[in-house]
Design brief:
The protein is α/β, with parallel strands linked by helices. The protein has helices spanning about 5-15, 45-50, 60-70, 80-90, 105-125, 145, 150-155, 175-180, 205-215, 265-270, 285-300, 300-325, 350-355, 380-395; strands spanning about 25-30, 30-35, 40-45, 100, 130-135, 165-170, 185-190, 190-195, 200, 220-225, 245-250, 260-265, 330-335, 340-345, 360, 360-365, 370. The chain folds into two domains: about 5-55 and about 300-395, Aspartate Aminotransferase, domain 1, CATH 3.90.1150; about 60-300, Aspartate Aminotransferase, domain 2 (3-Layer(aba) Sandwich). Strands 4-12-11-10-7-5-6 form a seven-stranded mixed beta sheet, with helices on both faces. Strands 1-2-3-15 form a four-stranded mixed beta sheet. Strands 13-14-17-16 form a four-stranded antiparallel beta sheet, with helices on one face. The longest helix has 24 residues, at about 300-325. It is globular.
Length: about 400
């Protein structure tokens, strides 16, 4: 089928919840994607921060192939080795004592919310059922996570939402103190906000939030669905702050492109959860868990994370240099290989112009262009990306 036939088929049969560009992607290799016409695109969106190892990693492919031949699905009614091994890897490399597996980031957040409420009921009474989230947050589109994502255009069509959601201002500890109360069971925050425009938390804010939660007997949930697992140059984004959560949600890069989510929790939270409190038919799929073991093993290597840090510094400098030449750029912000470029105008036309020149980038709100390339990106790729971005902005001497 050609691109026009595929688009026509989708138009007729697929429910349209995304606005897509006209090309049809066919394959990927390294940090590039190729469409059905053979055109290459340098991918600085990496499947919305999913393809951390790029496309076609041979070790991931081998793990998938071997596990497919052994066992593809068993359900959570039975023990499987890949699930056990992956859980061990995550616990040994994190603050956590236990892991719950699911199928996506929003599911990982939903599990975190359920676990927090159950913990509060066991330890503080049935009245502790509220959550505190933050301005600019994005935690997902299911009903619980959506209730903690304060964006009218996402929320309004689906009201009434889950009750018990209160909001404070990101990076403003005083605003948290004003809303946290006797009914609060947990605060949920992204150490680096993704969809909200690539805003890193300040060290004082995250450390103060940890102290406030400890003083009030409130759980602290970190949403690292987008910023976790190497994206910011440390294995977990919160490592740079010297702060640990009670619960953490993880997803996007974990499965190497296959769907998986995970909710990591301390033993004191795990002690409140028992059989029947939560579950999923497809969670901890053996094939996905086999792939995830490879992903975690590679990203956790010191040399790999040092590469991400070096690339982050280089990309930051190139983007900051471009800012000096372009008055439309308000701010460049981010960490590791998670960068946002805030513009004085809407970025949708810029994203399209980059696509037309062979570069895939994302938006993070109306005025922020987002770059989240594969963590395997190299200097030449970053030079090419910034050059194309500059051309899209009309800057030629960069």
């Amino acid at each position: 089928m050609n691109a026009e036939e595929i688009r026509s088929l989708e138009q007729q049969y697929v429910l349209h919840t995304y606005v897509r560009p006209p090309f049809v992607l066919e394959r990927g290799e390294g940090v590039r994607l190729y469409d059905s016409e053979g055109r290459a695109y340098l991918d600085f969106g990496s499947g919305i921060a999913v393809n951390a190892l790029g496309y076609g990693d041979p070790d991931v492919a081998q793990a998938i192939g071997q596990q497919t031949q052994r066992l593809m699905h068993a359900s959570n009614l039975y023990h499987t080795e890949p699930q056990a091994r992956l859980a061990k890897m995550l616990v040994e490399r994190s603050f956590a004592d236990k892991v719950y597996f699911c199928n996506s980031g929003t599911e990982a957040v939903e599990a975190a919310l359920k676990f927090a409420r159950k913990w509060a009921k066991v330890n503080g009474g049935s009245e502790r059922d509220e959550f505190v989230a933050f301005s600019g947050a994005f935690h997902g589109r299911t009903m619980g996570s959506l209730a903690l994502t304060p964006r009218p255009h996402y929320q309004d069509p689906f009201r009434p939402l889950m009750p018990g959601s209160r909001f404070a201002t990101f990076n403003d500890l005083a605003s948290v103190e004003a809303v946290i109360g006797e009914r609060t069971c947990a605060c949920i925050v992204e150490p680096v906000q993704g969809e909200g425009g690539i805003h890193p938390a300040t060290p004082a804010f995250l450390r103060g939030l940890r102290d406030l939660c400890d003083r009030t007997g409130t759980l602290l949930i970190f949403d690292e669905v987008q910023c976790g697992l190497g994206r910011t140059g440390t294995l977990w984004a919160h490592e740079a702050y010297g702060v640990t959560p009670d619960i953490m949600s993880l997803a996007k890069p974990l499965g190497g492109g296959l769907p998986i989510g995970a909710t990591l929790l301390t033993q004191r939270v795990a002690d409140a959860i028992g059989p029947g409190d939560h579950g999923s038919t497809f969670a901890a799929n053996p094939v996905v868990c086999a792939a995830a073991q490879v992903v975690v093993g590679k990203i956790a290597e010191r040399a790999f994370l040092e590469h991400v840090c070096w690339c982050g510094d280089y990309l930051s400098k190139r983007l900051t240099d471009l800012q000096e030449e372009c008055e439309d750029i308000v701010e460049v912000r981010g960490r590791g290989l998670m960068w946002g470029v805030e513009m004085r105008r809407e970025v949708a036309p810029i994203v399209q112009a980059c696509q037309e020149h062979g570069l895939l980038v994302l938006s993070a709100g109306a005025n922020v262009l987002r770059m989240v390339p594969p963590l395997t990106v190299e200097q030449a790729d970053m030079d090419e990306a910034v050059n194309i971005f500059g051309e899209a902005l009309g800057v030629t001497n960069h």
